UniProtKB/TrEMBL annotation:
The gene is lpdA. GO terms for molecular function: dihydrolipoyl dehydrogenase (NADH) activity; flavin adenine dinucleotide binding. The active site is a redox-active disulfide bond. Binds 1 FAD per subunit. The chain holds residues 143 to 633 of 637 of the full protein. Its EC number is 1.8.1.4. This is Dihydrolipoyl dehydrogenase. It comes from Melaminivora suipulveris. The lineage of its organism: Bacteria, Pseudomonadati, Pseudomonadota, Betaproteobacteria, Burkholderiales. Coiled coil: none annotated.
C-alpha cells in the first residue's frame, strides 16, 4: 500500500519510555516519528500516574504535617477541602509538564503523530487518527514506514472480571480524577499504587479498608520498613484484610457491596462490606497484545510482555521494546534508561558509530519508592532476599530516633539500613549490596544508596563520606559506620 510518511526511527507510545527514546534518537541526529493515541505526551506517568499522584500526595503530606504541629503549639484548625480546586491544581501540574514535552518534541523536530498505532508489516505501522481529549478514532489512517522501531506502548490497570461497571468502582486513573471524597473506601490490592491513593483519600477524609491476597502490604519491601509505615498509618484504616481474596461485588443503592474469601484453605473470611468507592489496584498488564506485533513478527508472551535482550532488542533485529511492556519493575525511571539504550543502539547501527552501537542496559539495581507518609524506599538486595538466597550480609541500621534532624522535624519514626556483602570472599570489606529507608523524604535519599551500589562502595567509603549535618541523608553515613564499627579509622 501507499506510504504516507517515513522515518529512520518510529517510536510507538509517548510515555516516559517513548518520549525519552524519541528525544535521544533525535539528539543523535535521527529522523524520528513518535506515535501517541492521546492528545498529550507523557503517557501514564505524567498524565495518570507518577506526577498527578505526587501532586496530591504533596498536598496530603502538608495537611498531615500541619496537623502534627498541634503539639508544637500551632493549631490551624480543621482543613477546608475544596476538591474542585485541588483537582484543577493537579491538572495544572500535569499541563505544565506535558506542555513542556510538546515543546521539547518541536525543538528536536520529532514528528508527533496522534493516533492508534498498529503494525501492518515488519517495516510499516498504520496510524489511525484519534481526536479530542481521549482516544476517539476518526477513521483516517496513515501508514508510516520505518527502518527501526521502538515499542513503548506501556501498560494498563488490571480489571477484576466480576467488578460491576459502576462509577463507584475505579482504577488509579479514576481515583486520580478525584470526583469526590468518599466516606468509606476499599483499596483492592495492598501495593504501592493503592496505598499512595489511599493516603491521599484518607487525608482528605475517607475511612479506608484494604484487602490483599498475600500476607503483607507493600510486597517487595523488607517487613521492618513496612512495619514502621503501618504503625504510623494504622489510624487511617478500619480493616486491613491480609491473606484475603475479593470474590464478588455488587452495585447497590447504598454502595458497592464486596465479598471476600480466605486466600488459603481453612482461613477465616471477613464479612461482606459496603463501600462508597472501590479502588482496583491489583496490578498492571502490558499492552503487548494490542499493537499488531504479530504482523511485524515480534514475539509477545501470553500475558502481553515483549522479550528483549540487553540492548532492548526484540526477536526481530530492527525492532526494540522498552518500559512497562518489557516487564517488571514497571517504573518510569527504568523505562527512561531503557529508552536511552535502545535509541543509542539504533543510532550506533544507522550511523556506523561503534561505541554507541555497544550501548546496553547494565544497571545493577533499580530503586523502588512508595511515596506514602512516611515514605518507604529500597534498592538492591533486601534482607528477605538475602535470607532466601543464603547470602551472608552485614547490616548497618541507623534509627532516626538518634537523628537530630528527624527529631527537630518531629518525625523520628524512620530508620536507614544498609546491607554489605559479608561472604568469606569479601574478607570483611564487603561492598554494599542493598539498602532501605523508611521515613520522610526516603525517596529523595535512596538514590545515594543506588549510586553506592553502582560504584561498588564499601562501608568505609560511605561512612567516611562527609554528609552535611543536620540532615536526614546523614543517616546513610551513620548506617555505614554502624556496619563497619566506628573505630575503624584506618582504611
Ligand atoms: P506508559 O507510560 O504506559 O506509556 C505508553 C504510552 O503508549 C501511553 O501514552 C499510551 O497511550 C501509548 N500507547 C499504547 N498503545 C498505543 C498504540 N497502539 N498507539 C498509540 N499509542 C499507544 N513509576 C515510577 O517510577 N514512579 C512513580 O511514582 C509511579 N507512580 C505511579 C502511579 C500510578 C497511579 C501509576 C498507574 C503508575 C505509576 N508509576 C510510577 C509507573 C509508571 O507510570 C510507568 O512505569 C511508566 O509510565 C511506564 O512508561 P512507559 O513509557 O513504558 O509506558
Amino acid at each position: 500500500g501507499a506510504v504516507d510518511a517515513d522515518c529512520e526511527v518510529l517510536v510507538l507510545g509517548g510515555g516516559p519510555g517513548g518520549y525519552s527514546a524519541a528525544f535521544r534518537a533525535a539528539d543523535l541526529g535521527l529522523k524520528v516519528v513518535l506515535v501517541e493515541r492521546y492528545a498529550t505526551l507523557g503517557g501514564v506517568c505524567l498524565n495518570v500516574g507518577c506526577i498527578p499522584s505526587k501532586a496530591l500526595l504533596h498536598v496530603a503530606a502538608v495537611m498531615d504535617e500541619v496537623s502534627h504541629l498541634k503539639s508544637a503549639g500551632i493549631d490551624f484548625g480543621a482543613p477546608q477541602v475544596n476538591v474542585d480546586q485541588l483537582r484543577s491544581h493537579k491538572d495544572k501540574v500535569i499541563g505544565r509538564l506535558t506542555g513542556g514535552l510538546a515543546q521539547m518534541a518541536r525543538m528536536r523536530k520529532v514528528t508527533v503523530l496522534r493516533g492508534v498505532g498498529l503494525f501492518v508489516g515488519s517495516h510499516h505501522l498504520q496510524v489511525e487518527e484519534t481526536t479530542g481529549g481521549g482516544q476517539d478514532r476518526t477513521g483516517a489512517k496513515k501508514v508510516v514506514q520505518f527502518q527501526r522501531a521502538i515499542i513503548a506502548a506501556g501498560s494498563q490497570a488490571v480489571r477484576l472480571p466480576f467488578m460491576p461497571d459502576d462509577p463507584r468502582v475505579v482504577d488509579s486513573t479514576g481515583a486520580l480524577a478525584l470526583k469526590e471524597v468518599p466516606k468509606r473506601m476499599l483499596i483492592l490490592g495492598g501495593g504501592i499504587i493503592g496505598l499512595e491513593m489511599g493516603t491521599v483519600y484518607s487525608t482528605l477524609g475517607a475511612r479506608l479498608d484494604v484487602v490483599e491476597m498475600l500476607d503483607g502490604l507493600m510486597q517487595g519491601a523488607d517487613r521492618d520498613l513496612v512495619k514502621v509505615w503501618q504503625k504510623m498509618n494504622a489510624p487511617r484504616f478500619d480493616n486491613i484484610m491480609l491473606n484475603t481474596k475479593t470474590v464478588g461485588a455488587e452495585a447497590t443503592a447504598e454502595g458497592i457491596k464486596v465479598s471476600f474469601a480466605a486466600a488459603q484453605e481453612g482461613g477465616k473470611a471477613p464479612e461482606p462490606q459496603t463501600y462508597d468507592l472501590v479502588l482496583q489496584a491489583v496490578g498492571r498488564t502490558p499492552n503487548g497484545r494490542k499493537i499488531g506485533a504479530e504482523a511485524a513478527g515480534v514475539a509477545v508472551s501470553e500475558r502481553g510482555f515483549i522479550d528483549v535482550d540487553v540492548q532492548m532488542r526484540t526477536n526481530v533485529a530492527h525492532i526494540f521494546a522498552i518500559g512497562d511492556i518489557v516487564g517488571q519493575p514497571m517504573l518510569a525511571h527504568k523505562a527512561v534508561h531503557e529508552a536511552h539504550v535502545a535509541a543509542e543502539a539504533i543510532a550506533g547501527e544507522l550511523k556506523g558509530d561503534e561505541k554507541l552501537a555497544r550501548s546496553a542496559f547494565d544497571a545493577r539495581v533499580i530503586p523502588s519508592v512508595a511515596y506514602t507518609d512516611p515514605e518507604v524506599a529500597w534498592v538492591g538486595l533486601t534482607e528477605d532476599q538475602a535470607k532466601a538466597q543464603g547470602i551472608k550480609v552485614k547490616k548497618g541500621l541507623f534509627p532516626w530516633a538518634a537523628s537530630g534532624r528527624a527529631i527537630a522535624n518531629g518525625r523520628d519514626e524512620g530508620f536507614t539500613k544498609l546491607l554489605f556483602d559479608d561472604s568469606p570472599e569479601a574478607g570483611g570489606h564487603g561492598r554494599i549490596l542493598g539498602g532501605g529507608i523508611v521515613g520522610t523524604h526516603a525517596g529523595d535519599m535512596i538514590g545515594e544508596i543506588a549510586l553506592a551500589i553502582e560504584m561498588g562502595a564499601d562501608s568505609v567509603d560511605i561512612g567516611k563520606t562527609i554528609h552535611p549535618h543536620p540532615t536526614l541523608g546523614e543517616s546513610i553515613g551513620m548506617a555505614a559506620e554502624v556496619a563497619h564499627g566506628s573505630c575503624t579509622d584506618v582504611p
